[in-house]
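Sat 14:20. Reprocessing the chain from the morning session after the first attempt stalled halfway. Input below, unchanged.
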Amino acid sequence: MAVIGRRIKLCGLWEARRLVAVLELANISKHFGAIQAVNDVSLSLEAGQVVGLMGDNGAGKSTLVKMIAGNFRPSHGTIRLDGSEIVLHKPVEARQHGIEIVHQDLALCNNLTAAANVFLGRELRRGIGPLKVLDYKTMYKRAGEIFNELKSETRPRDLVKQMSGGQRQAVAIARTMLAEAKIVLMDEPTAAISVRQVAEVLNLIRELRDRGIAVVLISHRMPDVFSVADHVIVMRRGKKVADKPIALSSPEEVTGLITGAIEQG
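Finished this time. Tokens:
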């Protein structure tokens, strides 16, 4: 009975943590001149939650994510992080708030090692005063620890140009973990990679979720979203047309919402 009681208590604590909205968007809109890219979108993202963001090309997904990442300022609406309203003028401010983005092109340096990419812009140094040098030993060790936490086979000393698509994703995700991100925004992470590498990337997303990190997953791949997401949001022509638990939706419904065959989810 004591063991059962402890499990119930732990589950209760986990559910309470998941109910905390780390990110809230309220009536967010973005227009570029006469073009309305995002129109009056509201959403809530909880700690340890994976949200699939789906829609056709031009639906407004990338624009919405870029506002969260600080690339664009909303024309209207508010962004709240941990209940407090924030205004983001540039990506570095989003990163300071614990918001990291993994771009589709990953923004990695092919001629550098995995560890060097993980610490790019955050390099560790040792020494005294102006006589400091890069602390490769510590960076290799820490990068290796992060890859182990992610259960990735990526090795810190391997060059990025020699890596598979799944390993490259691991490097990009490890960079967000080094920054102790609260929210990770992922743009088409499984595009143009093999089936085996897709499975590796989906496992990386699950590792982020299990560590209490909220993930927004932009994807056109229905099986991937239904495999890892807790929630699905569908956008069409700049508007949110569905926002529901993944268990209450289906690939057929999402496809209908994306194409307009179904008006509202």
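The chain has nine helices and twelve strands.
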